[in-house]
Amino acid sequence: MAEPFSEAAPSLTELGNPRKPQGEAGAQMLAHMNESHAAVTAWGLSFLALTPADRVLDIGCGGGAALARIAETVTQGHLTGVDYSAVSVESASKCNAAHIAEGRMEIVQGNVSALPFPDAAFDKICTVESFYFWDNPAEDLREVRRVLAAGGRFVLIADIYGGAALSQHDLDNIARYGLYNPAPETFRQLLENAGFDDVQVHLREGTTWICAEGNASAV
């Protein structure tokens, strides 16, 4: 999960590589991400149409703030976070310790390329500020579609996209970290090719934010 894009980011990303937070520097990065991603997360999650009984997966759960926000609505279902950084798993677990103790949530280490879950395991899936780093976006999105139940919804949330009026700071970080940053139409094509239906791409006016939404047709 990444945080290379705010104007405060240079000092932050000097702490470590946002591709996979590690050690104390990674923990500090994740704490900052929980704060700096709050607004774009809230906006993007508004398209997820959460209900109290949903089974929800957050891919690249980072510091756990998105899961905590989702838990405010999903009070009867179950939430799962997955991240391939051990430091992220630890940080997200601390952030959501009460929900985990209540049995409402679990957070596991894993990779989006091979999600450790059965087919159709979740009603709603989100990923916030992590898609930039996925190894194989096209195949990884097919893996996300595999674990989404019929009638379910997936949202991909990012605070920059290709073709937006990005700052030089953003452009430098895209080059520095090798970020995958497609244009809105490419997001649409990727989700459709991965098997999602009713794909919509939302842009927030006055920002560089994007939320790509894909659904799974009900059987």
Account of the protein in words:
This protein is an alpha/beta fold and 219 residues long. 36% of the residues lie in helices and 21% in strands. The protein has nine helices and seven strands; from the N terminus they run H-H-H-E-H-E-H-H-E-E-H-E-H-H-E-E. A seven-stranded mixed β-sheet has the order 3-2-1-4-5-7-6, sandwiched between helices. Helix 7 (137-146) links the parallel strand 4 (122-128) and strand 5. Residues 1-15 and 25-32 have low confidence and may be disordered.
Please trace the helix and strand order, writing H or E for each element: HHHEHEHHEEHEHHEE
Helix/strand-derived category reads alpha/beta
Instruction: Quote the beta fraction.
Output: 15-25%
**Whole-number count of domains:** 1
- According to CATH, the fold-level topology is Rossmann fold
**Contiguous helical run count:** 9
Mean pLDDT: 87
- Specify the CATH architecture: 3-Layer(aba) Sandwich
Major sheet: arrangement of strands: 3-2-1-4-5-7-6
Q: Flag low-confidence runs.
A: 1-15, 25-32
CATH superfamily: Vaccinia Virus protein VP39
Rg: 16 Å
